[in-house]
Amino acid sequence: MNKEELFINPLAEGSRASKPIEPCCLVIFGVTGDLTARKLMPALYNLAKEGQLPLHFTCVGFARRDKNDEIFRNEMKEAVIKHSRTKPLDEKLWENFASKLFYHKSSFDDAEGYKSLNKRLSEMDSTHNTGGNRIYYLATQPSSFTTIIEKLSESKLIYPYEENQSPWSRVIIEKPFGHDLQSAESLQTEITKHLNEKQIYRIDHYLGKEAVQNLLVFRFSNLIFEAIWNQKYIDHVQITVSEDIGIGTRGRFWEETGLLRDMIQNHLIQLLSLIAMEPPVSLDADAIRNEKVKVLEALRPISPEEIDQKVIRGQYTDGFVNGEQAQGYRSEENVDNESSRETFVALEMAIDNWRWAGVPFYLRSGKRLPKKTTEIAIVFEHVPNILFLQNQKKYEQNVLSIRIQPNEGIAFNMNCKVPGIASPIQPVKMDFKYGNYFGLTPPEAYERLICDSILGDSTLFTRGDEVLASWKYIDPILQHWEKNPKEAPATYKAGTWGPVEAEKLLNRSARSWRMI
Ligand code: BG6
C-alpha cells in the first residue's frame, strides 16, 4: 500500500480522488494550549510530510499571549519534536512548513483582533494563494465557543453558507459540546444562528482512529458477519475503554466533568452507534449519520429507579499501576478531598429495535485501570447444550473482539478439539493484527480529521442531532447523581479493573467482563 492509499478514507463521501485538496488557511483559536502542542501541530507536520496538505496553505495561531511569529514557530518546533509520531524531525521539511505558520495576538472577545485577523488573512490570500478558504479550529475552553463564533460572524470571517460555494468557511469544534443536555441545546441554538450545519465539524477524535473507521468496512463488506449481527446470534456486547493514567494535572477540569461526560457521552456512545447501526443507503456523510442517530434514538432511557443498579460509578484510591505507586483521586492536585466525582463508569444499555431487542450493551471506562486499551467484544450465544456438554459445563461462547488500540486488530475465539485421544475441547484464537499485516503505522486520528475538514468531508464528525441524542440519554443519569451528591461512588484501588459492583453488574445475568 502506498502513502496516498493510506489516506483514503473508506467512508469518505463520494470519491476522494474527485475532490481536489483546495488551498486554505487554518486558524487555531487557543493555540497556546496543550491540544495544539500534543496533537494538532504534530498532525499538521505529518500531513505536510505525507503531501496531504494543500500546496497553498497557511496556519494562524490565535491566542491572548504576547509572542511573535518567530517565537511561535520555535515553540511549535519543540512540540513537534516531542510529540510527532514520526521521528526524527525532517529539518528541511520543517523549514518549509514553519514558513506557513503565523501568530495573531488577540483576546477572544476583542472585535479589533478579528478585524486585523481579517486583514491578515486577505493579505495571505494574495501572498500565499490561500484562495479565501478558511477553517477555524476552536481548541479553547468550551465557554469561549459562542463568543468566537459570534465575533467571526460579525467580522464577516464566516461566509453565509451556499451549496458548493467558493470560497468556503468551516468551523471545527473540540469536545465537549455542552456540559449537559440544556447547555448542549443552547450552544447548538447559538452557533446555528451564524453557521449552517454543513459548516460545523464537531470533533470526536475516536472517529478518526483507523480501527474505528474500519468498523463499517468490516461490518458491511463481509457477508458472514452482517448475517449474524443481531439478537438471534449475539448474546451481548462489551465496550471497554480503559486508561492507566490518572487525571494528572486536570484536577479542576475533572471535578467539573467526570468520566460519564468526558468519555461515555461521546467516545463510547459513538463506538456503540457504529456497532449497532443499520447499513446506510450510501457512504454519504448524512446517510451514515442518519443511521447512527436512529440507534441513539432507540436507546432505552434508564429510569431514576434503575440508575443505581445499572450505572456503576467508581473512584480510584491509592494503588499501583504498572508497578508504580499511584495516589488516590481525592489526593490529586486541585481535587476536593471529599469529592464524589467519578473516575470510572460501567453501565448496561439497551437498544429498543428489532435487531437488538434483548441484547445488553455493557460499556465501561475508567482512569487508573491496569492498562490502556480500547476493545469492542461481540459475545455470541451458546450452542444448544446437546453434544459437547461435559460435567454440566458449557463451552465458551464465540467472541469477536475488535481491538481499537493499541495493537489494532480483530480476533475470533472459537472452540477446538485438543489433539489426542482424551480430546478435551479448548478455546483457541484467530488473530489479525493490522501492524503485522499491512506493515504501516496508521496516521493519528487528528491527521485524518484535519485532512477531512480541508476536503469538506464530514463523515467522521458528529452531527448536531447526534450529540443532542447522546446527551438526552446521559442527562437523567447526571441529574440523578446531582440530586444525590452524598452518595459517593464505589471505590477501586488504582491498577485494578474498577469496583466490584462493576463485576456484579454482569454477574447478575451470569456474564462477566472479558479479561483483556
Ligand atoms: C479525551 C479525554 O477525549 O480522550 C481524555 O478528554 C482521555 O480524558 C482521552 O484521556 C483518551 O484518548 P485516547 O486517544 O488517548 O484514547
Describe what you observe in this structure:
α2 (34-49) crosses α14 and α10 (251-276) crosses α11 (285-297). With 516 residues, the chain is of the alpha/beta class. The protein contains 16 helices and 17 strands. A hairpin with a 2-residue loop joins β9 and β10. Helices cover 36% and strands 20% of the residues. Strands 16-15-14-13-7-12-11-8-17 form a nine-stranded mixed sheet, with helices on both faces. The chain binds 6-O-phosphono-beta-D-glucopyranose (BG6). Residues 205, 243, 262 line the site of 6-O-phosphono-beta-D-glucopyranose.
Q: List the bound ligands.
A: 6-O-phosphono-beta-D-glucopyranose
> Biggest sheet: strands side by side, in what order?
16-15-14-13-7-12-11-8-17
Provide the helix percentage: 25-40%
Which consecutive residue ranges, at least 5 long each, have pLDDT under 50?
1-6, 13-17
Strand content: 15-25%
Going by helix content, strand content and strand pairing, the class is alpha/beta
Quick one: biggest sheet? 9 strands, mixed
Shape: globular
Number of helices: 16
- In angstroms, what separates the terminal alpha carbons? 31 Å
Q: If you average the pLDDT, what whole number results?
A: 93
Number of strands: 17
